[in-house]
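Model the whole thing, not chain by chain.
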Amino acid sequence: MIEGVAALYILMLAAFVGFEVISRVPVILHTPLMSGSNFIHGIVLVGAMIALGQAETGLEMTIGFIAVLLAAGNAVGGYVVTERMLEMFKSSDKKEQGK
Amino acid sequence: MSGIVELVYFATAVTFILGLKRMSHPTTARSGIHWAGIAMAVATVATLFHPEIQGRYILMLLAVAIGGGVAYLGARKVEMTDMPQMIAIYNGMGGGAAAAIAAVELIRVAENPMLAETHGAMALWLGVLGALIGCVAFSGSVVAWAKLDGRMQKSFNFKNQQWVNLAIIAVAVLFGIIIATTTPGPFTLIVFFALALAFGAMMALPIGGADMPVIISLFNAFTGLAVAMEGFVLDNAAMIIAGTVVGSAGTLLTQLMAKAMNRKLSSVLFKQFGGAPSGEKTEVEGSMRPTDPSDGGIQMAYADKVIIVPGYGMAVAQAQHKIWEMVELLTERGVDVKFAIHPVAGRMPGHMNVLLAEAGVPYDMIYDLEEINNEFEMADVTLVIGANDVVNPVAKSDPDSPLYGMPILNADQSKNVLVIKRGQGSGFSGVENHLFYLDHTRMVYGDGQKVVGEMIASIKTL
């Protein structure tokens, strides 16, 4: 078990990482990045699988099943949409726009 | 085995952060999503060997196949213009999954209070909070999706709406506290989840038009947080770190979007904008002067410098391919062509960039508001296609206008302005656009794709 204070440290550090990563992003990448972060919280799939794997009663299994179903949709859909958007980013010969 | 699974989760969290970092630069963006995708796949497979999973493998694979399959097909065939609502619905699914995990765990605790001891009090509180946030993200995203997809009326308001919402969330929080501190019965759990779902829907219902991307981004951050909270319940480091990173990144992104529109997040959430009538229309002097597409094309062909301002209308008309064809022709003739993108052009920041990229426009021809705003006075022609509010000069001149204070593209300062527009209606905000009435502005009415096609034809005859 991740103990109370350690958990707070993890939260705080991860939150700073999120801020840092986004803060230097050019506007043109805002939508793809929102979509990309949408994919990343698809990691909820892992938790949904564990919840279903622990389920004992029929009710728990039903809800666990729904959890895995939704989470898989989040992960797969998020990936495909982001990939399709980023696929279109091509650069012409003169690299690096003047910032 | 459990050690290896933990190690995989650790590596997943690190790869997610690196992937997100790569996604934040145009040249590395594609590899970023690939990295994150591989990490996700590895983590999913490793989870099959998680020591706490006692079976249900067939159910698990079935759910993954159905959920993943439907999402894959949906994401493959959707048009680029409809991307915002797809992001909304996939985000909602993530929030729903987090809430469902919480439901399973809370039911298990309710049936077997001994489990509460092993989970620990803090995990229980975070689990309940995650359930609340996840439910809100789920129902809110579904409403946002339905609205953007045109399945629901644009906005929905009634008297004392904010007080009703406040009451719903207050009672939901109260039930949450009961669940976290006692051994709850099924009734308590059902009411809690129902109220949380209701609140999410109520939050998204009154929001319309240009504010939609802001609320979607906010729900995206919510889902991230909910995932992190459930990560604590399941003691899963990958969920905690990935969820928190998305939560904070999403919050910042939401603020950036709101700022780009010069709107406070609070006023997006608690006031109505686009949907409500904007009161009296300001009288505009003069009239709009129409012109032919072919004249407009010739005017651009003989110009030295042309700036193109695209808006949502371009997306609706799917005119981006034609525009790029025209730009290539103009460039061949030696015309300096640039694209100017307002941060909120379209339905999401970067929406226009994605569409232009799809048509083959290199991203280094595309400029942000700050980069290009001083160049408009040097432009011989500014071509506005399907954009309205983002070039409306009243944002600078009329303090009574609802647009006042929003940074705009200075299209009005260029020597000539061509506006391609379907009809004479006003923009999202319902505010009359003074740009259209200026002496050096010419209106070209018609479908964007058709009009640009005619412009191309006239340029070719030269």
